[in-house]
C-alpha cells in the first residue's frame, strides 16, 4: 500500500535505520501518532541495507547491538552478519506497525525553518513538500561513501566499486583484485575475497590495530535459555554492556592504552610469522587513536600465497592495473574501494540545504566544525534534532545505547512542544558554546589526541565525532530535556493555530 505525503505533520523523521526506527517506536509509545518517516531507499535498514559485502558484520555483540525494548533471544551468532541485523530491523518495523508512517523513495532536498509559522518547510524530491513542527535527522554519519582521488581511476577499464555498493553480479573467481584501504569494511571483506581471487593486492596507507573476537554461534541451549528465562538474557546483555564499557578506560587514559597495545601486538605476532610482513602490519600510533578493529580472519589472509600487502603508496591507476610509488605495476581486473565514509557532517550534509533562523544554513553555522548541544540540538535551528550527531559517536560500546538515550531526550522535547503550540524551542548560544568547549577540553587528554590522523578528526585536528566519556554518564544527563539551556520563542504569527494534519483532524 502506498501512502501519500501529508501537507503537515508534527514530526518528520529522516531515515529508517536504527535511529529513525527507535524514534518512531518511542513517539508511538508516548502517544504521538502524527509523524512521518522519510526514507530515500525502497526499504528500511540504513547501514544494514546498504552494506552487503562479503563478511559484513557488526563489531558489537548481537544482544547489545539491538534495542533494549525489543530483545531477540534467537540471535544466531555472538557477532551478527548484515543479513541477521537487517532482518531484525524488518521485524521491528512489522512488530510496531511502522510501515504506514514510512514514505519510501522520498528524499529531503531542502529544509527551511519558518519563524512565522514555527514549522519546518521541507522540500522533497519530485517537487513534493511537507510542513513539520519538528524535524529529526536520523540519517546517521556513515552513509555517504568517501571516494579517493587517484590519478587515472576514471581510466580503469575493469570494474570498480565501493564496499558499500558491492557488485554481487560480478564474480571475483580467478581474477586479479586490487583492494584500496584497510579500514573496518576492508578487514571483513579481504579474507573472503582472498578465497576467490587469483591474486589479491591490498593497498595499505596506515596499518590498523586488530584484536581477536569471540566469533562463534550460539548453542540451541543458549537460545532456549534466553527465550524461556528473559532475566537470563537481560543479565547477559548487562554483562556485555559493562564488559564493553570498561574499554573506555584506555580511551580516557592513554598510558593504559599503551599497555593494551603491547597485548594486542601479541595477537599480530601469533598470526603473522614473517618478520617483514609483521612490521608492515604494525601500527606506529597508540591503540585506540584510530578505530580498533576486531577480526580473527584478517591477519591470516596475508599468509596466503595469493595475497600481497602493498605499503608503498599508489602513484596512479592505468587502464589495467595499479602503479605504486616505486613504479611497480600490479595488474587488476577489479578495484574495490574500502575507503570508508564521509563521517564529517559538514561533508555528508553539505548537499542538503538546512536553513534555520535569520536565513543561516547549517553549513554556515558549522563553518568551524560541526557542533551541537548533547550532539542533538543546534543553536539557530529550532525544533531540529539530530541523532548520532557531533561528538556522540563511540569507540568502545554500542551506539544503540546512545541512540536510545537521544531518543528519550528528543521525545521529551517534542512532548513539551505540544504543550506550547505557539512557541518554538531553540538552544541558547552560550549553553552550546560552553558545552562544546568542555567536550573539546576533555578530548585533548584522550587517546584520540595522541598524534594520529583519523576520520574522527578534521584536518585542523578538531575531533567532531566521539563522545569523550562514559555512555552511562551520557544516559544520566539526557534523561529529560535540559530546559534551562533553551529559549522558548513566540511564533511571529501570534495566536493563529498551527495547521492541523489529517491525523489530528480525524482525532478531533
Structure description:
It is a single chain. With 508 residues, this protein is an alpha/beta fold. Helices cover 30% and strands 17% of the residues. Helix 1 packs across helix 13 and helix 5 packs across helix 6.
List keywords for this structure.
508 residues, alpha/beta, five-stranded parallel beta sheet, 17% strand, globular, disordered C terminus
- How many β-strands, per DSSP? 20
The percentage of residues in β strands lies in 15-25%
Uncertain ranges: 504-508
Structural class: alpha/beta
In short:
Helices cover 30% and strands 17% of the residues. The protein has 16 helices and 20 strands. Helix 5 crosses helix 6 (230-245).
What is the strand and helix layout of this fold?
Elements (H helix, E strand, L loop, with lengths): L7 E7 L3 H12 L5 E4 L8 H4 L31 H14 L6 E2 L4 E7 L4 E6 L4 E9 L21 E4 L13 E5 L5 H9 L4 E5 L6 E2 L8 H9 L1 H16 L2 H5 L1 H18 L3 H6 L12 E2 L3 H4 L5 E4 L3 E5 L2 E4 L4 E3 L2 E4 L7 H4 L5 E2 L6 H4 L18 E3 L12 H20 L4 E5 L1 H15 L27 H7 L8 E5 L11 H6 L1
Parallel strand pairs: 1-2, 1-6, 2-3, 4-17, 6-18, 7-16, 8-9, 8-16, 9-12, 10-11
Antiparallel strand pairs: 4-5, 5-6, 13-14, 14-15, 19-20
Amino acid at each position: 500500500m502506498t501512502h501519500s505525503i501529508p501537507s503537515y505533520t508534527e514530526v518528520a523523521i529522516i531515515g529508517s535505520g536504527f535511529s529513525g526506527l527507535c524514534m518512531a517506536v518511542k513517539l508511538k509509545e508516548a502517544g504521538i501518532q502524527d509523524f512521518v518517516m522519510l526514507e530515500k531507499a525502497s526499504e528500511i535498514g540504513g547501514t544494514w541495507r546498504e552494506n552487503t559485502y562479503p563478511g559484513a558484520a557488526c563489531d558489537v555483540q548481537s544482544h547489545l547491538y539491538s534495542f533494549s525494548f525489543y530483545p531477540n533471544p534467537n540471535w544466531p551468532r555472538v557477532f551478527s552478519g548484515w543479513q541477521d541485523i537487517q532482518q531484525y530491523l524488518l521485524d521491528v518495523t512489522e512488530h510496531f506497525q511502522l510501515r504506514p508512517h514510512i514514505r519510501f523513495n522520498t528524499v529531503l532536498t531542502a529544509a527551511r525553518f519558518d519563524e512565522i509559522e514555527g514549522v519546518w518547510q521541507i522540500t522533497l524530491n519530485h517537487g513534493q513538500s511537507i510542513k513539520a513542527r519538528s524535524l529529526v535527522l536520523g540519517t546517521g554519519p556513515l552513509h555517504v561513501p568517501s571516494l579517493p582521488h587517484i590519478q587515472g581511476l576514471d581510466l580503469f577499464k575493469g570494474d570498480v566499486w565501493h564496499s558499500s555498493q558491492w557488485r554481487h553480479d560480478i564474480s571475483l573467481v580467478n581474477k586479479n583484485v586490487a583492494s584500496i584501504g584497510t579500514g573496518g569494511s576492508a578487514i571483513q571483506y579481504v579474507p573472503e575475497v582472498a578465497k576467490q581471487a587469483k591474486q589479491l593486492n591490498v593497498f595499505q596507507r596506515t596499518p590498523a590495530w586488530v584484536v581477536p573476537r569471540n566469533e562463534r554461534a550460539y548453542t540451541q541451549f543458549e537460545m532456549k535459555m534466553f527465550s524461556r528465562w528473559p532475566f537470563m538474557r537481560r543479565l547477559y546483555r548487562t554483562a556485555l554492556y559493562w564488559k564493553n564499557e570498561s574499554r573506555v578506560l584506555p580511551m580516557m587514559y592513554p598510558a593504559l592504552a599503551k599497555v593494551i597495545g603491547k597485548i594486542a601486538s601479541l595477537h599480530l605476532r601469533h598470526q603473522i610469522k614473517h618478520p617483514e610482513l609483521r612490521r608492515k602490519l604494525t601500527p606506529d600510533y597508540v591503540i585506540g587513536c584510530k578505530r580498533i578493529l576486531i577480526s580473527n580472519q584478517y591477519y591470516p589472509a596475508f599468509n596466503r600465497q595469493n595475497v600481497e600487502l602493498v605499503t608503498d603508496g599508489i602513484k596512479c591507476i592505468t587502464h589495467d592495473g595499479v602503479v605504486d610509488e616505486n613504479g611497480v605495476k600490479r595488474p587488476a581486473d577489479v578495484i574495490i574501494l574500502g575507503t570508508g565514509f564521509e563521517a564529517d557532517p559538514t561533508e555528508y550534509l553539505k548537499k542538503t540545504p538546512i536553513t534555520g533562523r535569520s536565513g543561516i544554513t547549517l553549513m554556515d553555522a558549522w563553518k568551524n566544525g560541526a557542533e551541537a548541544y548533547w550532539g542533538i540540538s543546534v543553536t539557530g535551528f529550532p525544533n531540529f534534532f539530530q541523532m548520532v550527531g557531533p561528538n556522540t559517536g563511540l569507540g568502545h560500546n554500542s551506539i544503540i545505547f546512545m541512540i536510545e538515550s537521544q531518543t528519550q531526550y528528543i521525545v521529551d522535547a517534542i512532548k513539551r512542544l505540544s504543550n506550547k503550540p505557539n512557541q518554538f524551542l531553540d538552544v541558547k548560544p552560550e549553553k552550546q558554546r560552553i558545552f562544546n568547549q568542555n567536550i573539546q577540553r576533555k578530548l585533548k587528554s584522550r587517546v584520540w589526541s595522541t598524534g594520529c590522523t583519523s576520520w574522527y578528526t578534521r584536518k585542523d585536528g578538531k575531533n567532531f565525532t566521539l563522545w569523550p566519556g562514559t555512555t552511562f554518564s551520557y544516559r544520566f544527563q539526557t534523561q529529560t530535556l535540559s530546559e534551562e539551556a533553551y529559549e522558548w520563542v513566540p511564533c511571529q504569527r501570534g495566536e493563529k493555530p498551527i495547521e492541523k494534519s489529517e491525523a489530528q483532524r480525524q482525532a478531533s
